Amino acid sequence: MTQHFPALLIIVPLLSALAVSAMGWIDRRWCFPLAVASLGGALAISVSLLAQVMAAGPIVYQMAGWRPPIGITYVIDYLNAPVLVVVLAAAFLNLIGAKVRIEEEFEEKLGAYLALYLLFLSGMVGIVATGDAFNLYVLLEIASLTGYALIGLGKERAPLSSLNYLFMGTIGASFYLLGIGYIYIATGTLNMADISNMMPQLMGSGTLFLALIICMTGLFVKMALFPMHGWLPNAYSNAPSSSAGLIAPLTTKVMIYAMVRLGLTIFTPEFTFSRAVLSETIVWLAVGAIIAGSLLALMQRRLSRMLTYVIVAEVGYMVGGFWLGNKTGITGATLHIINDAAMTLTLFMAVSTITWKLGSDKFEDLKGLFGKMPFTMLGFVLAALAVIGIPPTCGFFSKWYLITGGIEAGQWGFVGALLFSSLVNAVLFFRIFEIAFFEPFATGHGHHDHGPAMSEAPASMVAPLIIAALSLIVLGLYTGDIVTKLIQLAIPAGIA
């Protein structure tokens, strides 16, 4: 059975989506347990695959026994094994933590909503695991279409935000597909390993260089790299909180993973970084994303809206780190994919819990929140410290690699943008702490005897949030193992 684990990663949530949808018509009480069992099983499989990769090296699985270029190959290696665990763990924790909200908001559509949730995850997992460039596009569309629906199920402006996301997402996917077409013209295959093997003979190919630019443009749209970010703030802030808690931690990070995979595996580093003008341009785009995202976050008065612009800045971190083209920068970018997924998950779970209890995430409504919801705020504070980059949280270590990589590459604009963003993040989150702890101002500054009575959210919401928050410290403490035993083994030896 274990030899089929790479296929089961996608098959389990995919078939469970059909079962959950059917159960919605038969007995809705079984929908949620079935979805949780499915994600729990997939998470256990991903952990087993990670252990196998660390013990014996990469795993190559040929679907239905068909060899490439006819068949589709799934590859679990040092690069994607930890990403798979984080993707599935984030979806699992978010689903458990959002149970109360999902059952309240989608009581009559519970089967349909959970089926979309599982289908979205099937697409995300497939994107990370596939070794076929066209299959990545198919799975990208599965994730995108279900993502549009998950956002559009929200209230008020959510359907319009989803429509805008659909337009931009379709443009991004079309660019990627066009680029894959050029790759096929030049190589005659869609298997990533086969394309990589042909690259030494095609280093001067103008067709492949055009394919690289087009594919990357498509992925930049999908990951919301500034100035192609316009769809993201509305989509994530207007989505149902359970959908935002799934999509916000995963979508941009998986798209950045796809960028790393294309750059290292399909086009190879020698080709990807062969033109300094391209790398330089993208690094400066990343600098713009970091600065613009940080400044736009400062202008917001809603917590969820502020976090969406923090995501825009974080995308700049990872894109810039990768396109530095050195080992340290790529290590930092890849590590930040894992860390930022965990940080974003924790922040959005905290916001979901706060809005469920207060009915609002406006700054003025957060007064006295440390007294009312101390455990929720504990999770929020740990995530905020990680985003700022305070050790021993995981955010510090990936930022350290990114800054070091920028110094090694002589990209002082990128280094300055990272430091600027960290300072802005400190201002952003300490402003929230001030409102939630000190306001309303009174004798004792938050410690007076008659402070707000504790009124915490249910344990089913708070416990997964605390687990997610503690994972930020665990990831930080085990950064050395993650880097030396996984990420740096995935970076080709030719990268200095």
From TrEMBL:
Keyword Transmembrane in record: yes
Keywords: Cell membrane, Membrane, Transmembrane, Transmembrane helix
Membrane topology: Multi-pass membrane protein
Predominant place of localization: membrane
Subcellular localization(s) per the UniProt record: Cell membrane; Membrane
InterPro entries in the record: CPA3_Na-H_Antiporter_D (IPR050586), NADH_UbQ_OxRdtase (IPR003918), ND/Mrp_TM (IPR001750)
Transmembrane segments: 6-26, 38-61, 81-98, 110-128, 165-185, 205-225, 246-269, 281-299, 306-325, 337-356, 377-402, 414-438, 459-478
Pfam (any one): Proton_antipo_M
Location of the NADH:quinone oxidoreductase/Mrp antiporter transmembrane domain: 132-423
Similarity comment text for this entry: Belongs to the CPA3 antiporters (TC 2.A.63) subunit D family.
Protein's name in the database: Cation:proton antiporter
